[in-house]
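Is this the right way to post structure tokens for a design question? Let me know if I should format differently. Anyway, here goes:
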């Protein structure tokens, strides 16, 4: 039986791709008054875009609403229900810092995005197809706040995907994502067997063969999910200088960059073009993700086993190990913040720039937290000892990266903190019925 997803009840960002390029913002609110917060939710509800109305969003803006654990508590959710939420969500991301490798420069004491109990409680994700529309649509958030002194705007981060679709290190982004059963359309070549919907949406069967559920009444959690939000500062100058210092020509720099990522900066995968970039292949969505590792490249001669994309989604590479990669899939909604460092500049200009990831997962422990701690920040699973992800990994465990090359294996030493965490939170993205339930009071206590 094909799975029927309740598309009109699932917030759109879970299943639908953003317009590209796009202009967005995270508006972060603090709740001091439960009743007023519910009024805010009620006012926002008509604008919340579902997966069904994504193609024709109300007033041309895509708006989704998330809540933190403390946000649900401040809305008045009972302690009995709160206690049933997953531990990662209850504790909040900052409290998970040691496990997640947010240490040193990435320690939450340096974060600049509100987080934790005194951080933000409701988040509004606004997306629009132009900067002008973004400004207009942000007004929805501001208008919804009118007269509600008990709910305050405590943060705003502007994000987007620029017209060249590149992130700050210069790589084309937004190429690979799982195809979820029931999402509609057809999978692209390389997306493989559809992922079970319960990996990404509560209320459906997951890869373990059981229905993924949530705490309290079904009205609260049905069609909801969790996002792991990460604000990651990118040290673009350090990355460029590192490439320059470890290659003897511009072409050599591109090669080293590709070996760290697993794709050329054009998006073209090393798996399909191991020797030289093929930008046309990189642009072709029917070819640029159509590869596997197990049979074709078991030792990582093409795509190094420790490269970013092979770590975060090993595809079929771990077939002979005990790890089932399908239990650790993430659906990425990544976007950039901050100005691009002009082409060729090798000195840091002191501007904050980076990536904000909203990683969709119905089980934050075995999905985001597993990938971050075991695959990004450790190398054991690919027999690379304590070596970490050369793009996004922590450096206190290892600053070293190696990959097969001719005539001899190449080792890069002295990797720097190219990516530094500046904020993060596990948030709950209710279904639209769940939002209505929360807005209407549900069995809330106040
Ligand atoms: C500064 C930090 C990061 C940068 C610059 C970055 C950049 C990229 C780029 C350029 C791609 C290839 C494009 C694509 O396949 O769509 C990619 C893929 C991916 N990244 Fe990251 N990323 C970062 C951090 C992370 C983190 C922290 C996670 C998860 C914990 C993550 C998860 C993924 C996943 C799941 C993929 C898709 C891989 C695939 O399916 O082949 N990334 N990333």
């Amino acid at each position: 039986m094909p799975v029927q997803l309740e598309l009109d009840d699932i917030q759109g960002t879970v299943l639908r791709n953003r317009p590209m390029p796009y202009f967005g913002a995270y508006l972060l609110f603090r709740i001091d008054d439960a009743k007023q917060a519910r009024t805010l939710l009620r006012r926002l509800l008509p604008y919340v875009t579902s997966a069904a109305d994504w193609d024709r969003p109300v007033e041309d803006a895509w708006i989704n609403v998330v809540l933190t654990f403390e946000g649900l508590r401040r809305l008045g959710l009972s302690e009995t229900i709160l206690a049933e939420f997953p531990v990662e969500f209850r504790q909040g991301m900052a409290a998970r810092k040691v496990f997640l490798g947010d240490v040193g420069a990435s320690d939450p004491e340096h974060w600049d995005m509100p987080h934790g109990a005194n951080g933000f409680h409701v988040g509004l994700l606004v997306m629009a197809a132009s900067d002008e529309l973004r400004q207009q649509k942000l007004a929805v958030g501001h208008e919804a706040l009118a007269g509600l002194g008990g709910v305050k705007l405590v943060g705003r981060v502007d994000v987007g995907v620029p017209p060249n679709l590149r992130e700050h290190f210069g790589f084309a982004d937004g190429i690979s994502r799982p195809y979820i059963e029931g999402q509609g359309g057809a999978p692209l070549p390389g997306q493989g067997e559809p992922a079970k919907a319960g990996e990404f949406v509560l209320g459906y069967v997951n890869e373990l063969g059981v229905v993924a559920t949530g705490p309290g009444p079904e009205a609260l959690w049905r069609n909801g999910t969790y996002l792991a939000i990460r604000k990651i500062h990118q040290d673009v100058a350090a990355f460029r200088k590192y490439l320059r210092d470890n290659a003897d020509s511009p072409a050599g720099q591109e090669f080293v960059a590709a070996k760290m990522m697993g794709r050329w900066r054009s998006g073209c995968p090393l798996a399909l073009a191991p020797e030289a970039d093929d930008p046309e292949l990189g642009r072709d969505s029917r070819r640029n993700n159509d590869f596997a590792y197990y049979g074709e490249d078991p030792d990582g001669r093409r795509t190094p086993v420790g490269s970013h994309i092979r770590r975060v989604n090993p595809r079929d590479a771990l077939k002979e190990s005990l790890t089932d990669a399908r239990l650790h899939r993430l659906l990425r909604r990544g976007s950039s913040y901050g100005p691009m460092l002009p082409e060729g500049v090798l000195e840091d200009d002191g501007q904050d720039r980076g990536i904000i990831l909203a990683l969709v997962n119905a089980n934050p422990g075995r999905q985001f937290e597993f990938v971050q701690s075991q695959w990004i920040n450790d190398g054991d699973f690919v027999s690379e000892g304590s070596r970490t992800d050369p793009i996004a990994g922590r450096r206190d465990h290892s600053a070293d990266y190696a990959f097969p090359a001719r005539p001899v294996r190449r080792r890069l030493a002295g990797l720097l903190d190219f990516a530094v965490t500046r904020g993060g939170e596990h948030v709950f993205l209710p279904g639209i019925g769940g939002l209505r339930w929360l807005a209407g009071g549900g069995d809330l206590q106040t």
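Format looks fine. Someone answered above. Worth noting: Residues 167, 169, 171, 173-176, 230, 232, 234, 261, 263, 308-309, 312-313, 330, 332, 355, 357, 359, 368, 371-372, 376, 391-392, 419 surround protoporphyrin IX containing FE (CB under 6 Å). Residues 106 and 282 are 32 Å apart (CA to CA).
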